[in-house]
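[Discussion] Sanity-checking designs against the backbone

I'm trying to build intuition for which residues belong where. Below is a structure token string of 221 positions. I'd appreciate it if someone posts a full sequence so I can compare it with mine line by line.
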């Protein structure tokens, strides 16, 4: 049995993705900052028959991601699928002319150093398995920069560039990297960007391995 490792476990998309991959037979490693949140998610998944376990880590502390991912692989089995989708902080989204170089430190750690660290932690295990999937979830500013959200626009674009390089470089090793762009808010009432539908898209990206960039719905004009 292999593990689906989710960085950014929460009650919306995180729970839906954990349930989708878990019901497909993967063990689930839930990674987030809050132990209480993780306990609640584990209990919810257990009711669905999903074997899951929580590991505390912070995307702004890349070293903690390494510790969590290694512990997850030791406890649950090798990580075959990694999803990087932590929720961004509001203070990452200052207007571009109000954004200083120092203001970019946290967004870049969150969206670049975090993913690079996480991928490097799971890649040896994927190579041993002979397969793997790396899933990245970003907002629309990753492909259409928004001047009122400078930090995320810059950092998401960098994350997308990194993920695209992984897609091209790792394909010969049967390791698939893909990005899902969610242009608007993830909301239960949304036709295309509700947690359940997005989880299905992510699972299809893992199984079908069709291309790099996918959109939950069309970008608004």
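Best answer:
Here's mine. Compare freely.
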């Amino acid at each position: 049995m292999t593990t689906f490792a989710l960085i950014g476990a929460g009650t919306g998309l995180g729970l839906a993705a954990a349930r989708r991959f878990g019901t497909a037979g993967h063990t689930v490693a839930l990674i987030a900052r809050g132990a209480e949140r993780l306990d609640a998610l584990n209990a919810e998944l257990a009711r669905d028959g999903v074997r899951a376990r929580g590991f505390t880590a912070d995307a702004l502390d890349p070293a903690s991601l390494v510790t969590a991912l290694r512990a997850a692989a030791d406890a649950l089995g090798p990580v075959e699928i990694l999803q990087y989708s932590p929720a961004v902080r509001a203070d990452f989204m200052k207007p571009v002319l109000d954004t200083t170089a120092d203001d970019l430190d946290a967004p870049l750690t969150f969206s670049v150093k975090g993913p690079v660290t996480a991928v490097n932690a799971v890649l040896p295990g994927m190579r041993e398995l002979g397969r793997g999937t790396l899933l990245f979830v970003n907002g629309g500013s990753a492909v259409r920069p928004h001047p009122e959200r400078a930090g995320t626009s810059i950092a998401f674009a960098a994350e997308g560039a990194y993920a695209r390089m992984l897609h091209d470089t790792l394909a010969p090793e049967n390791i698939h990297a893909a990005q899902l762009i969610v242009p608007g808010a993830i909301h239960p009432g949304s036709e295309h960007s509700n947690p359940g539908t997005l989880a299905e898209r992510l699972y299809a990206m893992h199984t079908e391995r069709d291309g790099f960039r996918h959109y939950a719905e069309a970008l608004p004009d």
